[in-house]
Amino acid sequence: MIKAYKKFWSNIFNFSGVASRGEYWIPVIINYILGFILMALVQQILGHSIEDIYTWGDWSAKTGSLIISFIVWLATLSLRFRRLHDSNHSGWWILINILPFIGQLWFIILMLLPSKANNYE
């Protein structure tokens, strides 16, 4: 589990490799749990929602959270490309998410597919 999470962060700019199902789902689940805990902690410390900006401290917390969110989004995007390559699909399949509901459902199915023998390496 820790190995998959380390690989997630070490391949943040790798859009051409492959990632197994475990290498995809473990970081995704860990990031959701960590994000929920950290946002709750920050909002508890601030005493209000992070979306509300009353002071410069609130502004810096909001800016910091946006920067962290962008870095995690970029790492997750590259992970999604690698997972698609592992199931022998083009990275362009990520655009299926544009379609409401059906696109997201189909993308989850693509992420659940097993690895193919002759994947894009």
TrEMBL record:
Give the top-rank taxon of the lineage listed in the UniProt record for this protein.
Answer: Bacteria
Q: Which GO terms describe its cellular component?
A: plasma membrane
PANTHER family recorded: INNER MEMBRANE PROTEIN YHAH-RELATED (PTHR34980:SF2), INNER MEMBRANE PROTEIN-RELATED-RELATED (PTHR34980)
The protein depicted here goes by the name Integral membrane protein
Species, as recorded: Lactobacillus apis
